[in-house]
Task: inverse folding
């Protein structure tokens, strides 16, 4: 029987399928009609635009003055060589954001991505073809590789490198494909709920799951500008004092949440005593508690949202450790 809702249905199911090291499928459901695309579209945009990667931003080739030049002894002209180079994916091995690497090839040879790996950089597409040179050719070139996000045109990069370098369009994102499909799903005799199915493929620089996590973090970070509208007090980045994250509130008993007997008993049997323990749990961990039903999950999630600390709040590691330690001490004192 249809009913009038006052709160949007909370999706409870998520499935992650690793198809390969470079490809994965993420499925979430059930969403109210229209909610799936509301979340899926910006997530796809963020996957393609906010994932950080590495790319060559400039090249200097001995004997070459511009990208439309040609080089004696090389089968490809310079423009095609540069196109092939852009298809090779790099990773800087240390923590540097920018490096310059030099190469020298001579004699009859086919050059591939694997030939560019050295102690400074790793090539994650070793099979990528670059050029063929003959026995009389000598190919000397230097690359500038940089860490960045999204796409940066050569017009911008031209001001960031020396004039003897040819500026390149830089494609930093390691995400090769990010698509989503939305299907209808039946919930309590209502066929209008939705399931969103993401397929994410990367070039191997990072895993598709990690790329998806990064896009979620970027979305949360962008939306945090509205926290003041909701009067949500977010944890301080630098200050982990009691005042900044209201540790005292999180050390209160779960009794303060005024949950129903069913929800409280479920948490009590799982030996969850304090509100902070719920904050430190992910939604998946909470959902997997033994005998915790859908209504109890929704009730607990709503109560935590109401006090300004949703389940799975994104605490910094040091802040979470402070909270964990205090809860451990309290439980230890109770046992004595």
Result:
């Amino acid at each position: 029987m249809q009913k009038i809702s006052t709160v949007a249905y909370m999706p409870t199911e998520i499935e992650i399928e690793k198809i390969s090291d470079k490809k994965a499928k993420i499925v979430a459901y059930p969403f109210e009609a229209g909610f799936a695309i509301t979340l899926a579209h910006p997530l796809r945009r963020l996957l393609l635009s906010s994932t950080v990667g590495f790319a060559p931003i400039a090249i200097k080739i001995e004997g070459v003055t511009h990208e439309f030049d040609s080089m004696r002894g090389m089968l490809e002209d310079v423009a095609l060589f540069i196109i092939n180079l852009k298809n090779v994916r790099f990773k800087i091995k240390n923590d540097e954001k920018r490096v310059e690497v030099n190469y020298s090839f001579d004699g009859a040879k086919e050059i591939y991505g694997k030939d560019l790996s050295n102690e400074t950089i790793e090539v994650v597409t070793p099979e990528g073809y670059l050029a063929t040179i003959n026995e009389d050719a000598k190919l000397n070139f230097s690359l500038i590789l940089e860490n960045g996000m999204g796409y940066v045109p050569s017009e911008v990069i031209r001001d960031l490198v020396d004039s003897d370098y040819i500026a390149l369009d830089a494609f930093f994102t390691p995400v090769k494909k990010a698509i989503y499909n939305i299907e209808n799903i039946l919930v309590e005799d209502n066929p209008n709920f939705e399931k969103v199915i993401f397929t994410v493929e990367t070039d191997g620089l990072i895993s598709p799951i990690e790329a998806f996590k990064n896009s979620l973090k970027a979305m949360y970070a962008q939306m945090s500008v509205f926290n003041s509208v909701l009067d949500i007090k977010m944890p301080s980045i630098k200050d982990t004092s009691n005042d900044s994250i209201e540790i005292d509130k999180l050390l209160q008993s779960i009794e303060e949440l005024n949950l129903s007997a069913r929800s409280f008993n479920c948490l009590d049997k799982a030996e969850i005593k304090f509100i902070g323990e719920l904050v430190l749990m992910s939604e998946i961990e909470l959902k997997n508690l033994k005998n915790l039903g859908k209504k109890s999950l929704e009730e607990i999630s709503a109560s935590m949202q109401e006090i300004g600390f949703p389940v799975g709040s994104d605490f910094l590691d040091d802040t979470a450790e402070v909270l964990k330690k205090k809860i451990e001490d309290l439980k230890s004192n109770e046992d004595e």
Remarks:
- Residues 13-51+175-229 form a domain with the Gyrase A; domain 2 fold (CATH 3.30.1360.10).
- The mean pLDDT is 86.
